[in-house]
Amino acid sequence: MRRAAEEVARGRGRPVALVLRALGLGDLLTAVPALRALRRGLPDHELVLAAPAELEPVARATGCVDRLLPASGPGRSVPAVLPRDARAPRLAVNLHGRGPDSHRLLAGLGPEHLWAFGHPAVPGVRGPAWAPEEHERVRWCRLLRWYGLDADPDDVRIAAPAGPGPVPPGAVVVHPGAQSAARRWPVDRFAAVVRGVRRAGLPVVVTAGPGEAPLARSVAEHAGLAPSAVVGGDAGVPFEELCGLVAHARCVVVGDTGLAHLATALGTRSVVLFGPVSPALWGPPDTGPHRALWHPGEGQEVARPGDPHADRPDPRLMEITVDEVLDAVLEPTAGGAAPTAPGPGSVVQAASR
Question: Which strands sit side by side in the sheet containing 290-293, from one edge to the other?
């Protein structure tokens, strides 16, 4: 289907390519390989991203997007409408979902071309078939390859900020928050990890996303940290500061949430805790300084064994132990110095692989 990309590239004036990805931080960062493929393949187009307004600095940091068009729906739903833009897009690209609502939303803008996965309810869109058990980065790159653009799902990096972060470099960043309880490891376990990391002689900061300040303060209190070790208030941490913090961190300990994808994008070591959804769908690349911890259970290695929106921690998440996380955090990094030896009373053992 390379002809599809060639047809889009032809035309007069500076055309618009509108990309729909009206989701969250992690969703946008997993779409970076696809956005980069569009930027390379359509260099003369103005690349406009339809996404929540608060993600504008994230879109800018990708280096791929010319402009953000504010768009969002409740939860993870398709926006009801898109703001009327100055120019109709020559190309509309659906990186939001499988359709049909997102297909129809983009079709309503009257683009000359619409790239999306095929859906029987929208027969005018002749895209590839949707594969539900596919990694999110791979999925959107496959879509663009079908239409004739080269796309590398491992092309995830964004530029690190030049200046320092809000705390001294080399700290272990612990982020206990997640959108749902199903993906939130308990406070006492995060606190135990913090204590173990401090016994190993490493500084720790606890980050809070929007609305997560009480949770972060609770982890710090249980771990014996000063209140100043918590970064972020009720509004979270501004993206530029968050990038500086993560880029200069020794390691990030986090659940399956947006900050994990930011660590991937910045090339910072991460230990990511998975529960209801397999890392095969949302995990970091196999190449890189990352550890994805997951215990699906005997004979339960399906991609979505649990409910990611449940109101209690997923049983698979609860199988991850404090010792296992500490082992992953404290293991020596390639080309880097090992942490100081754990002090008396600390428990660090080999993780189950």
Answer: 230-231, 204-207, 172-175, 251-255, 270-273, 290-293
